[in-house]
Every structure is written in structure tokens, then in C-alpha cells.
Design a protein that fits this description.
Radius of gyration: 20 Å
Strand content: 5-15%
Number of strands: 12
CATH topology of the largest domain: D-Maltodextrin-Binding Protein, domain 2
Shape: globular
Helix content: 40-55%
CATH superfamily of the largest domain: Periplasmic binding protein-like II
CATH architecture of the largest domain: 3-Layer(aba) Sandwich
Number of domains: 2
Number of helices: 14
Order of helices and strands: HEHHEHEHEEEEHEHEHEHEHHHHEH
Largest sheet: 5 strands, antiparallel
Length: about 350
């Protein structure tokens, strides 16, 4: 399939999802009325890099404020916090200091179970995109994960719980057996992608590997000293959801219009990325304060493996792995267990 065909299909999928959500949203508690008190401000968390472009568009275009106004919530204050890993974002959500976070499937599954028997169970709103994690190294002796030794250090956003850390465990389990899934954990280091990029390319750091995401993997692979080891698409056998925005059921129930404003903003941001590629790239450069050229970013976005979609893809494989190795006590039957009903009619996984 060509890049143009992929974009067309992606845009059509976003439009279809908008129609499905509009139908489902009618069931949201108190949406039709105005008696229920609504929050006057919301805080949303994001991380660094291209996977968070939809959130950057939402911030730059003030899309939540726009949709909130259309739903009778004029004056809703929206603030954005950028953090380097899922651990801090999950802690912020559970402490009540943030209303929406946007992280990878392992963190979603963990928080889904952890919050299940509390007054504030967590579910995901939708997804943001399917996008590959790529494990790269500057150690020329490493061609597969079996070649890493105790002299290597592999940077991941958060050891053990980030999507990249989990993917290393899944890859290790496939290679050495499930009892060896943590075999590479001692060599992982928690480090934000920007810092890991600098460490890798400096050649002076102990960091010899980086399980990363766009744009960082593209930047590192421009260096002839760096090469690819594997990607999560290869490990799981197909496209994989990169991250999902999620919140508590309490927030969704008590603030249905604010919740809908966030969802509608996510849909519009994806439509904007499909239709206004140059403007989306400009926003990325401005918000990220990126020194990358528009041409380099466009090249990344044209990669067939990068797809902006609201549909969960292969998230259940993460959850089933986590259950099998004891990270989750509860085995979810499908993605619908940890996503809100508005996306249950989609063909997710």
C-alpha cells in the first residue's frame, strides 16, 4: 500500500470513528443536561517526540477549549504537562494532580488492574497511533538481543513498566523462555528519550543501546555507528498501539462534557494531521522546540509503519504476556475491558 493510500484510509477511519463516537456519546451520564457540576480546569500529560503530535496539535490549536465551548463549557482552563516517562504520569493521575495521561499499553494494563477495586478505576479513551519502537545500538558486536552483555546499558523511558521495557521482556521470553523474561532487565536504565539520544551519539556514555521512538530512532540511525536490532512490530507480529490517553471513570461520569471535549479534540487533531501535514509539522517543531528540518519530519511521518488511528492494535498481547508472567493477576478478555465503551464498536485488539 502506498503512503498516499495509507493516509486516505487513515483519514477515513478517523471520520468513521467520529460518527461512531457521536452515537455512543449520547449515553454518557448527564451529557444532555446542565445540572451536573463540571470541572473548570483540566490537566493533561504527554511525553516527548513524534508519538505525541496529536496532543501538540490539541495544545497549539486549543482544540479542547474549542470543543468545550461548543458543549457549554466556555472558559474551561486547559494545561499541559510534559514528563519523561509513564511512571511519573501514572503517579500524577492516581494522586489527582492530573486528569488525563497518555502512555503505552503496559502502563494502561497495570493501572487498569491496580485501580479496579478503588473508587476511581481507570480506562482508556481511545488510542492515538500505531508506531514502532525500535531498539538501536552502537555496539557493533550486537546483532540480536542475545549479543548484549553486562557491559551494555539499554536506555528505556522507565525500567520494567514502559512499553519499551516490556517489549524487551517479551522478546527475551520468546528467545529464552518465559522464565527468562527479565533476563535483560539488569542492563536497562530509565532515561528520557532526549537524554538517551545525546548519550548514545556522544560515544562517551555507558549507554550502548536505546529502545526508542520517533524521531529519536530516525536521528540515531542517521549515524553510521548505530544500527537497528529489532522493533516491537517484529516481536508482536504486526502494528502495535504506541500509546493511549486515559482517565478515571469518576472523571468521565462526573464530567461527561469535558470528557467528550477531549475525545472530540483527539479526533479533530488526527484529522488535522492527515489533512494539514505541513501545519502539523510546523506545530511539532514549535512545541517540541525541535531543530529537525521539516523535510526530515515529513520523511518520518511518511514511513508506512507510522499510522495515526483511534483503534487499539495488539494491546491485548501486552496484557496477556503480563498475566502469564505474573505482572497482572487478572487476565483481560479483550481490549474492551480497559477501554471506555465509546470505542467498543471498533475492530480493535
Amino acid at each position: 500500500m502506498s503512503t498516499t493510500d495509507g493516509r486516505t484510509q487513515g483519514a477515513a477511519m478517523v471520520r468513521t470513528t467520529r460518527r461512531q463516537f457521536v452515537a455512543g456519546a449520547l449515553a454518557l451520564p448527564a451529557l444532555a443536561g446542565t445540572a451536573t457540576a463540571q470541572v473548570t480546569s483540566i490537566r493533561l500529560g504527554k511525553q516527548y517526540g513524534l508519538p505525541f503530535l496529536p496532543q501538540m496539535v490539541m495544545e497549539a490549536q486549543k482544540l479542547i477549549e474549542k470543543h468545550a465551548g461548543a458543549l457549554g463549557l466556555a472558559g474551561l482552563q486547559v494545561s499541559w504537562l510534559t514528563m519523561s516517562g509513564p511512571g511519573a504520569l501514572n503517579d500524577a493521575l492516581l494522586s489527582g494532580s492530573i486528569e488525563f495521561v497518555n502512555v503505552a499499553p503496559p502502563s494502561l494494563a497495570t493501572l487498569w488492574e491496580k485501580s479496579a477495586n478503588t473508587p476511581h478505576p481507570v480506562r482508556a479513551v481511545c488510542t492515538v497511533q500505531s508506531m514502532p519502537y525500535v531498539l538501536v545500538t552502537r555496539n557493533q558486536n550486537v546483532r540480536t538481543i542475545a549479543d548484549f552483555t553486562d557491559k551494555d546499558k539499554i536506555a528505556v523511558p522507565t525500567a520494567k513498566i514502559s512499553g519499551q521495557a516490556m517489549m524487551l521482556q517479551i522478546a527475551a521470553a520468546k528467545l529464552w523462555g518465559f522464565d527468562q523474561f527479565e533476563r535483560l532487565d539488569p542492563w536497562t536504565v530509565s532515561m528520557g528519550h532526549p537524554d538517551a539520544l545525546v548519550a548514545m551519539l556522544s560515544g562517551k556514555s555507558e549507554i550502548t543501546g536505546h529502545f526508542t521512538s520517533p524521531p529519536f530512532q530516525f536521528q540515531q540511525l542517521e549515524d553510521k555507528r548505530v544500527h537497528k536490532v529489532l522493533s516491537n512490530f517484529e516481536v508482536l507480529g504486526g502494528p502495535v498501539t504506541f500509546n493511549s490517553p486515559y482517565t478515571t471513570t469518576k472523571f468521565r461520569t462526573e464530567n461527561p462534557r469535558s470528557y467528550k471535549a477531549v475525545f472530540d479534540s483527539l479526533v479533530e487533531a488526527q484529522e488535522f494531521i492527515h489533512k494539514s501535514r505541513a501545519d502539523a509539522i510546523r506545530i511539532y517543531i514549535e512545541v517540541e522546540k525541535s531543530k529537525l528540518s521539516p523535510e526530515f519530519i515529513a520523511k518520518m511521518m511518511d514511513t508506512p509503519d507510522i499510522k495515526h488511528t483511534l483503534v487499539p492494535e495488539n494491546t491485548i498481547k501486552y496484557a496477556h504476556f503480563m498475566h502469564k508472567v505474573g505482572m497482572l493477576k487478572t487476565k483481560p478478555e479483550s481490549y474492551k475491558d480497559y477501554y471506555f465503551p465509546e470505542v467498543h464498536d471498533l475492530k480493535g485488539s
